[in-house]
Specification:
By secondary structure, the chain is α/β, with parallel strands linked by helices. The chain has nine helices and ten strands. Strand 9, helix 7 and strand 10 form a beta-alpha-beta unit.
């Protein structure tokens, strides 16, 4: 595993993680977005049998992203429906959307997912020019941050709040695939937040064709995940509420990354 230096100079403990394919390369990038308050490193629950290694063994390049995730949207937004899409778009683009929660009003572009993905790819391509990272860079000189990454080669994955960011990213740009681990969780008055509804606006990536959900019953942090997948119009065959729990008692929210019994399935979710 390569621990890539953090391009924007934030806390070194939050450095990105990057892996090259351990099998025949699929020429596709798994971009993993950690949950709120988490770093790429602490998404690893076992040094060998973890989500990143499963993705690499399946032939994917893997980039686990460090980004600004020090706020919990469920607390920040509560039952304020308009808060969720504004917050997610701000975190993804790095540009504060009008009306966004005050805690995100000082967002910088270099803290957002667009720019940090691009910056990490540039760093990796420069450090490892023969490792294939350059194929995920599109128009590097574009003034528009979204145009700098080859999003059509990206499988966006994320756990919990990070999975919601992956889902919202797919609403903004056309991705190869979206994988939501114990997510998406955005709910208002015990119903899916309106941005998650299939008919609400345009979706650059089709949830019916390219979104996957992986969770387990008994998730008390994200209890409406199945209802939200249904609201998105996801294919029921890719709405998988049957993750192994490794016998974890109580809340199952963490098992989709933490239970090693899911190792053989993680790679398949990305296909």
């Amino acid at each position: 595993m390569e621990a890539g230096a953090d391009p924007s100079g934030v806390n070194a403990a939050d450095n990105h993680y990057a892996l090259v394919p351990g099998a025949t390369a699929k020429n596709a990038l798994v971009l993993h977005i950690p949950s709120s308050l988490a770093s790429p490193a602490n998404q690893i629950k076992d040094p060998q049998f973890n989500f990143y290694n499963a993705a690499a063994q399946a032939g994917f390049h893997v980039l686990a992203l460090s980004y600004r995730n020090n706020g919990v949207l469920g607390i920040t937004c509560g039952d304020n429906d308009a808060c969720y899409p504004r917050a997610r778009e701000t975190v993804i683009t790095g540009v504060a959307v009008s009306g966004v929660a005050p805690s995100l009003s000082d967002m910088r572009q270099d803290e957002g997912i667009y720019q940090r993905t691009f910056a990490a790819l540039v760093l990796l391509d420069a450090a490892y020019p023969n490792a294939g990272w350059g194929q995920f860079i599109a128009n590097a000189s574009s003034a528009n941050a979204v145009e700098r990454v080859a999003w059509d080669k990206v499988v966006a994955t994320g756990h919990s709040q990070g999975g919601g960011h992956a889902a919202y990213l797919g609403k903004l740009v056309a991705l190869r695939r979206v994988v939501q681990l114990s997510s998406t969780c955005d709910a208002v008055n015990n119903a899916p937040a309106s941005w998650t509804l299939a008919g609400n606006g345009t979706w650059a990536t089709s949830p019916a064709q390219r979104y996957v959900g992986f969770a387990a019953p008994g998730d008390t942090i994200c209890p409406l995940h199945v209802a939200i997948w249904q609201a998105m119009g996801m294919d029921p065959t890719r709405s998988l509420d049957d993750a192994q729990t490794c016998g974890a008692p109580g809340n199952t929210h963490g098992v989709t990354l933490g239970c090693v019994d899911n190792f053989s399935r993680w790679g398949m979710l990305l296909e």
